[in-house]
Amino acid sequence: MFNWSIITEVISFLLILVLILNLSYSKRTLTPLVKWFWAGLICASVSIIWNILCVFLLSSKHQVPRYINIFMNTGYFILIVLTCSVITMYVFEKMLEHVYDKYCIKRAKIILCLLTAAYFVLTLANLKTGLLFWIDESGNYCRGVLNGIGYWVMLIESCLLLFCYFRHRSSVSKDMKHVMRTVPPIILTIVIIQICNPQTLLNGTIIAFTEVSLFVSFYNQKRENDSVTGLGIRYSFFSELNLKIEGRQKFHVILIALTDFGVINCRYGHQTGDEFLYAVANWLDKTFKEAVAFRYVGVTFAVMLPFTTPEQEEQYSLHYRKRFEEAWAVGDCVEVLPAAFADFIYSGNGIDANQVIEALDYIMSLAKHSAQKWIQFDDKVAEKLLRHRHVADSLRRAVEDNGFEVWYQPVYSQESQQFQSAEALVRMKDENGIFISPSEFIPVAEEIGLVDKIFWFVLEKVCVFIKENQDLPLKSVSVNLSMPQFENPQLLEKVRDLMGKYEIPIDRIKFEITEREISDDAALARKTIHNMVHEGFRFYLDDFGTGYSNFSSVAQVNFECIKFDKTLIEAVQSDRKSYILIQGLVRLFHELGIQVIAEGTETRDQVDCLIGLGADLIQGYYYAMPMPGEELRKFLK
User: Which domain holds residue 110?
Assistant: First the structure.
């Protein structure tokens, strides 16, 4: 029995040692939770080694003075209960880590300290009373009437854990629920075996089993952490949201998106870029001890904080915004990282985690495209979100039911003095038959990934229209092309197949793209355009005069036409310098063999001005508004 007891303790110590080595290798940040776990491992290893020494010394009672055995066994009684209390404290911290109300954890600390202190006093008193144990004159170990009171302390601590667990069950993570369902019954079984067989040493087994279970449940899972920053990923954030909402807790979420981080990667390389991300993540995670940071997606971070008062919420937001106005240093690299911020407060709004994510994504989108760069979710934003959701639902319904319409706006040719081309424009109605503006639904379609389906719908409708109306004097119809199509490696083949299906000559359809589409992935866009131009397709550069108006785009891509944006047309009439500038641009494009289309013309004065500038083609309400295909047919005839 002696040998068996030693073997179980040695095996238990080796298991604890393996956990210590694994935790050391993982190099985890020393958060309060990790510190508690470390304390439990250290106490466990010391108590097991101490117990092994006690067994050896008792077995050598004739060679070891009696007072040494008394001292060693007294120390073990203190160590084993201290170890149980430290492990219990860790479980409390881990179980309630998602709970902002600290009432339960504070009371638990007080009770655990009182229990441990009372047991410590009882152990010291045992030197006089022998209530726990005594060593007789022959050196034999004798059990006192309260020898098993340590198990009662463990039972009380377990009851405290169960009480807090059931009180905050809705805010307890799935892993902790699994631990609470599986570990206590097994520990209780081992304790019963120990009590029934007092000569068998199983205390180390109980501790080792508990520590291994905790380690496997909480420290051997790398799937929910980002490899670059060490923060929880979007899935972890979603889990945290669920726990907070189910626990009816009020919280404050701040999304922080680094708006120009691509510049950092281009300037210093991706490795240094990752170091900047790590520096940001580390700061976000440690600035407020009550904050929990996540890598939300890409270069967007989420910080979750308790919500107490609007004043406290404002202080949090201001602190984060001010930090991103300052520079970040990584080695010799010092850069300011501009960011957009989105604030969301949950105070029992009656919405679920999916709706919170939807609201966060929406307000972050608003912040990125706002000069303010900071948006707080309020009633006005909530109304906009409802509208956004309505538009998104209408889009999905239109895609399923082919509910889009293709309208056409004729383009007037100054040379031939007639309409020789048109632009295809997509239109959509909601379930009530009310038209939704393309300026509203196209950005939403880009967000939810439906632009590609809309493009192919429009292109096919245009092919059908041209096929059925070959008697019209239209030389071509232009169709808008966007980045999702460029990302399709079969774009050229699919376009060629579709036009071949309806026997449409290549020169009858033109493709309009904006500078934004080119700048998103310049290399891919230029390669695709080059291949399509080589096949005979022609491209228009749309919205020239907005954004960067990058002349390298014009020089490197073989455009047939440049479409001047409406804002340029308006500027020409109001400013002499703008007139001279536009006049020079028209001459430049003509010298390059590129025609100029002026769109957005609404008055005769604008038309006369554009004719004077030398515009080749004019598109706008002055000549014709967009109209369905049948109306265009009548209009042209």
Answer: 2-218
